[in-house]
Write a structure and sequence with these properties.
mainly beta; single chain; 8-stranded mixed sheet; 263 residues; 19 strands; M1 Pyruvate Kinase, Domain 3
Length: 263
């Protein structure tokens, strides 16, 4: 499609706990941190290292619901068991967020025991101090992919249709050709009433091979991407979607227009 064709938001997906199942929402607010409560919390192991669905696929079977005004968190586990309560924090601890040191405060209460039992290993929830739990911090507070890109990969996979939640992107759009977003790096886009600048491509890892609800590995996503995107000279290997930074806060809802501007 031409760039001046209508581009619209078709889905918005978030999770308050990094690694847990992403859930579609009808609208959200973007500020300098991205979506403020998206990846507010993350999970650490017994050595205080951040773990996500790449290593602990069982996390994707858990649905987290956080209400900031009440400061409450509920985790719903397979089978329907719910662990909920008011968020109370312990003293700050040092954690490892990928390869970076990061200060966080552990959540006090029943969540750690419930998560540990579910995953079969010691786990606990923490809230980051001074930054959200998105991989690239504020520089990557927004991620975006087109439905045409998803359809293109589905054709390569001969899968009929792919659940976009597999790729854990904040914003899905329609109205462009497959992988048109590859060319948007360095450009600004008005998404709803929020202004963002796209900064790089999202390189993919093993988590995308997991079913977005069960966490079970069920699709050789990396092999599929390598088969037709492995030789591209973009900002990261095996690129699929783009990330960016919020320049001006605003509201975004499903059905909102996306308007591209210059750099």
């Amino acid at each position: 499609m031409r760039e001046d064709s209508a581009i619209v938001v078709t889905a918005l997906s978030v999770t308050p706990v990094k690694g847990m199942r992403v859930v579609d929402v009808p609208e959200l607010t973007l500020d300098a941190s991205g979506a403020p409560d998206n990846r507010r919390f993350y999970v650490v192991d017994d050595r205080a290292r951040m773990v996500n669905g790449k290593a602990v696929g069982e996390l994707q079977a858990v649905v987290a619901d956080y209400r900031h005004a009440e400061r409450t968190l509920a985790l719903t586990f397979p089978g329907g068991a719910v662990v909920s309560g008011t968020v109370e924090l312990g003293e700050p601890i040092g954690t490892r967020f990928f390869s970076r040191p990061a200060q966080a405060r552990p959540l006090l209460g029943a969540w750690a025991d419930a998560l540990s039992e579910h995953a079969g290993r010691p786990l606990r929830l923490v809230e980051s101090v001074g930054r959200a739990g998105v991989d690239r911090g504020r520089a990557g507070g927004v991620s975006l992919i087109s439905s045409a890109s998803l359809d293109g990969l589905a054709q390569v996979a001969e899968a009929g249709e792919l659940d976009s939640r597999r790729f854990r992107m904040l914003i899905e759009i329609d109205g462009v050709a497959a992988h048109a977003e590859d060319a948007w790096i360095g450009r600004k886009a008005l998404v709803g009433t929020a202004l963002v600048r796209l900064g790089g491509h999202v390189g993919r890892c093993l988590i995308t091979s997991r079913h977005p609800e069960s966490g079970v590995v069920d699709l050789p996503t990396l092999d599929l991407l390598r088969s037709y995107r492995g030789d591209l000279d973009l900002t990261e290997p095996l690129p699929f979607g783009v990330y960016g930074k919020v320049l001006e806060s605003g509201r975004v809802a499903v059905g909102d227009a996306v308007q591209l501007a210059g750099g």
